[in-house]
Write a structure and sequence with these properties.
Layout lengths: L2 H11 L5 E5 L5 H9 L4 E4 L2 H10 L5 E4 L8 H4 L5 E5 L2 H13 L4 E8 L11 H9 L9 E9 L6 H22 L8 E4 L5 H6 L4 E4 L1 H4 L5
Parallel strand pairs: 1-2, 1-8, 2-3, 3-4, 4-5, 5-6, 6-7
The structure holds pyridoxal-5'-phosphate.
Pyridoxal-5'-phosphate binds next to strand 8 and helix 9.
């Protein structure tokens, strides 16, 4: 895999308003360096125990995004430096992030992860759970988090019509939430959808952030 070439090709292809997150989970620091040297600064990781040593040894101007299942007892480890937590799927997690962010005098940006795929294995809030949580307004008193948008994954399938439908659902939820709760809030602007196999569809459907692993770094070895 020519990592630098993939980064450059993707950047040339993407519309200006779409942020590229290079998903480096299960890939070594050398691969991250190759992307870094090509100018990439935003990286996504899905496990705290893998992210921590990478964060310690790699350059400070990297923006680390957390994109995996986050256990509440791991929040304290990433709270000092994490730039965006994309995978918030409960109010209790939001409270924990708020508490740990306060200890570091930080405001941590988060996305709410929404379940739109048909697979049961995918995490996230259902659309109703998301709307119910926001309707409960308690989150508005959490001063050390900022909800900046939504994240979601489509079903892993060749069926482009199904992927399109799911991303359309996510986009309309995003628009509804923005309109109801964040109309005057410029921060709520991130719609994170699209991975290696479906990012072109996601961008067409209004994504502002794509998360690409395999298509930059090659297959992961678990
Ligand atoms: C692993 C992962 C990705 C990247 O997947 P690729 O298919 O390798 O591009 C994107 N988003 C999430 C939430 C992931 O866990």
């Amino acid at each position: 895999m020519d990592i630098a070439k993939r980064i450059n090709d993707l950047k040339a292809e993407l519309p200006e308003q779409v942020t590229l997150v290079a998903v480096s989970k299960f890939h070594p620091a050398e691969s991250i360096w190759a992307a870094y040297e090509a100018g990439q600064r935003v990286f996504g990781e899905s496990r705290a125990q893998e992210l921590l040593p990478k964060q310690k040894t790699l350059p400070d101007d990297i923006e680390w995004h957390f994109i995996g299942t986050l256990q509440r007892n791991k929040v304290k480890d990433i709270a000092p430096f994490i730039s965006l937590i994309q995978s918030v799927d409960s109010y209790r997690l939001l409270e924990e992030i708020n508490k740990e962010a306060a200890k570091h005098d930080r405001v941590i940006r988060v996305l709410l992860e929404i379940h739109v795929a048909q697979e049961d294995s995918k995490h996230g809030l259902t659309q109703n759970e998301c709307l119910e949580m926001l309707a409960m307004t308690e989150w508005q008193s959490l001063k050390h988090i900022r909800i900046c948008g939504l994240m979601g994954m489509a079903t892993y399938t060749e069926d482009e019509a199904l992927i399109t439908t799911e991303y359309k659902q996510l986009k309309s939820l995003f628009d509804a939430v923005k309109d109801t709760y964040f109309r005057t809030n410029d921060c709520f602007s991130i719609l994170s959808m699209g991975m290696s196999h479906d990012y072109q569809i996601a961008v067409r459907e209004g994504s502002t952030m794509i998360r690409i692993g395999t298509d930059i770094f090659g297959e992961r070895e678990y």
